[in-house]
Specification:
Order of helices and strands: EEEEHEHEHEEEHEHEHHEEHEE
Largest sheet: 7 strands, mixed
Structural class: alpha/beta
């Protein structure tokens, strides 16, 4: 444990945590304004079940079997690579893709990007979804129903996925970014059938392009259950403490609405924001940031302005 100069005193303890794949780093400010730091292995099952929680306990001086005194903590703000690593290592939730009939392979074909334009054998990355179901439906770009939704057939298809043990589904229909009624019907069916993670493209990413919208929706369905389990475990031990997570866009969000599509760059984004804040305070406007972790390495370039969408 390391102590540095005093900062302005918060109402209670504040914890800022970077939970990486190899190490977890914690910076805390106590009620008197002193800065305390701690570094732990992210995975150490012989000593603790979760590194951020153990780090908080170490700093507060309480035993592993003691509850964390939530009343003494003002806020916990965390960046995590839990989603990033699950994506890189293909360890997300088994997910089914439900898509408009005729577009089974649309996300697989995608934009036909070829790193090697002359390669005779194209090796595509494995898709995140394990099963695909096509449903009879079609709404055109102006909102006219070309093919009514086959409610009975869709229910049977979703029931078949549940019988296979799947609980996560990504629903991606043509032109649903604007005309979402068929996706809404399918989502209601999926909920009735017991799916616990239902990602619909009009809610996740209301983009016109089917491939971009579909990919984002699949990622959300694939990672959200893993992420939700982790977030719920942290929140349950922190009681009513304010808990925030860093999103891919570099902004913090309340833990209750943190979801898979926003977590992929949660850890790296914190490094970018921190590097920019640190260097611009000294007047530097052009920097290259290099964040080498145990699982992945992230490089960023900043030239005086953060891009925003």
């Amino acid at each position: 444990m390391k102590e540095t100069t005093k900062q302005s005193a918060p109402a209670g303890w504040q914890f800022w945590i970077d939970r990486g794949g190899t190490f977890t780093d914690i910076v805390a400010i106590d009620p008197d304004g002193r800065v305390v730091t701690r570094k732990l292995l992210s995975e150490n099952p012989g000593r603790y079940t979760d590194a951020p929680l153990q780090g908080i306990r170490d700093i507060l001086g309480i035993q592993a079997d003691e509850p964390i005194p939530a009343e003494s903590i003002d806020a916990v703000k965390m960046g995590t690579t839990v989603g990033t690593n699950a994506l890189l290592e293909h360890k997300g939730e088994p997910t089914a893709l439900v898509i408009t009939s005729g577009f089974r392979d649309a996300l697989r074909i995608a934009y036909q990007h070829r790193p090697d334009i002359f390669a005779m054998h194209i090796e595509l990355p494995d898709p995140l979804y394990s099963h695909v179901v096509e449903v009879e439906e079609r709404i055109d770009a102006h909102g006219s129903i070309v093919t009514p939704l086959d409610v009975c057939g869709s229910r049977q298809a979703l029931a078949g996925l549940r019988n296979l043990g799947l609980t996560s589904v990504a629903i991606v229909l043509m032109h649903a970014y604007r005309y979402a009624e068929h996706e809404q019907v399918l989502a209601a069916m999926a909920k009735e059938l017991g799916f616990t993670q239902i990602s619909t493209s009009h809610e996740v990413s209301a983009l016109m392009k089917l491939v971009g919208r579909g990919d984002t929706t699949v990622v959300d369905a694939y990672l959200s259950p893993i992420l939700r389990g982790y977030v719920d475990r942290i929140a349950s031990e922190l009681g009513g403490t304010r808990l925030y997570f860093m999103q891919s866009n570099g902004g913090l969000v309340d833990a209750t609405i943190f979801r898979g599509k926003d977590c992929i760059l949660s850890g790296p984004a914190g490094g970018v924001v921190g590097a920019v804040a640190t260097t611009t305070a000294d007047g530097d406007q052009r920097i290259i940031g290099f964040d080498m972790g145990g699982t992945s390495t992230d490089v960023c370039h900043y030239c005086g302005e953060l891009e925003r969408t």
